[in-house]
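Hello again, I could really use a second opinion on something today. My current little project is about how a certain protein chain folds up. You're getting the sequence in one-letter code plus the fold written as tokens. Here's the protein in full, and shout if anything looks odd to you:
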Amino acid sequence: MNPIDPNAEWLEADGLGGFASGTVSGIRTRRYHALLLTATTPPAGRMVLVNGFDAWVETPRGTFAISSQRYGPDVIHPDGASRVESFEYEPWPRWRYKIDDLTIEQELFVPKGESAVFTSWRVVAGIDDAGQPGSPTPATADIKLRVRLFLSGRDFHSTQHENGSFKFVADQNGERVTFRSYDGVPAVMAHSNGRYGHEPAWYRNFLYSEEQARGLDAAEDLASPGVFEFLLSHKPAVLMLAAEAVAGVGDPGSSNQPASTPPATESIEARYAQVRTIEQARRKYFSSPLERAADAYLVKRGQGKTLIAGYPWFGDWGRDTFIAIRGLCIATGHLEDARDILLAWAGVVSQGMLPNRFPDSGEQPEFNSVDASLWYIIAVNDYLLAAKKQRSLTDDCHTEKLRAAVEAILAGFNEGTRFGIRADRDGLLSAGEHGQQLTWMDARVDGREITPRIGKPVEIQALWLNALAIGAKFSARWQSLFDKGRAAFEEKFWNEHAGYLADVIDCDHQPGTVDVTFRPNQIFAVGGLPLQLLSQEKARRVVDAVEMLLLTPVGLRSLAPGEPGYAPRYQGGSRERDAIYHQGTVWPWLIGPFVEAWVRVRGSTSEAKAEARAKFLPPIYQHLNEAGLGHISEICDAELPHTPRGCPFQAWSLGELLRLERAVLA
């Protein structure tokens, strides 16, 4: 394995919407990199409470940093990043820092279901032949560790700047120190086996290089109330940071204390050992690192569950949830989680539509998607087929609720609902109006839709027809509409001269108009959904064309090179990036539908599956160690070297790899 890029990012999610994250080097490059980032109304209301820390080791030979920060204009200080000897991210992040003949090991983990993080440091004086830590030598005498926390108490999308409202008060009570940064912000409770010294100070002008590259506010000032001091020569240092419990989080009987907080009669060392053992066993339960990574996206919402679309900045989006759930939960056999998520969403159908987004700040959900509801039906079908094989999960009450949601969606779409969504006379689904972006290609700049796709987009028809076929299994009323739509689909979308499908027909609701821009959406007529809608000959031509023009090692381009507006790199400020979001930028999640289509047109034989595994999966596996460690990015550049962009941890990207592994190519 190649050495891990120092700029690669790690993630520890808490199952509530909060997380800890950072880079291999320890240098924070995003406003979202934090040691303690909590969801005050899970999974929303996310706030950064503890951004990070500086740490120094004091030895008889001098003082040595084991942390680094970037300050403006571009200064790295102190020099701890240069001492990173090794880094591992399984089962959680672990660093080894080399200081002369000493090695300091640091690890951190976030326990599932708690807004808390445990960090520990210990001296390693040598490694035996088996690669296990050796015994401390006399050289470790008088080794001290000093840790200075950096605090904010802000919305996770924003930055903090020096102000007079921050409270540097630190309430000390035994092993616990409580910091209350601002009124209305959860307190931070720090439990340690060290000694706290109050040394309040502002640290100014931290620079976040990733935000700078994205044209966003990249500078921040952080408050530091004081320093924790540990005697490493005596025992490992332990520091637990926890957010004051909010409604629905933590142990209801703990008087606003997170469940991981040690009782008054228990030391933080004992608590750390206990929680570490529990968390280690929990992570070993998963059958593979990929499956364990999938668990990061499963979070609490109210009394139910949902999926985070991506870290660090996305919330739970409808479309993303229903695409990702097929791989993250159903293909991996976590059917109870899938059922709970689908049932939770079943209760929010409105006029045949499911919300595409629950805003992070708690406003009303947004029904700005034509495909979220259709993807829901696909996910319900996947779940019911999988649950049928496990009779213990067969529950007539649950099944009836899911079927009722499917029926409500189909009825709403058939009769007509928001944004011009309605079944047309040809059996296909018409959708869209100016000012709204309803498909997954939903970028807007200054109120202008970059890819309007108003009319009858090709993947929406594939979803609609598959949804009708699924609905027909429950109610015969949908069969005739499916038959009509399927006959119209091939007739109206197929371009015989070009050998592929149009991207949109009846553009702007004008019958007979056709948009033949070459995009990946046509792949859903062959793969990614239960039904193949084209003959084998035409399906093969589509797959071959997509492979030739759109396939990259990490996914499909969103637009073919040579098409007007094609962008080889996803760069620039927010406006520039939004304008090219779907103009060539590679989307790794599309590798799932493509590989499934590639196998289908080869007869879905065991030989075709084996060839597909060998041909398409190795580059994706390699990507797991390149950006968001153990995960797959949201997007990549259209041209070599296909630099990862966007969210480094994306649910549907990982979900489609798992679906390929566990279902399509199994």
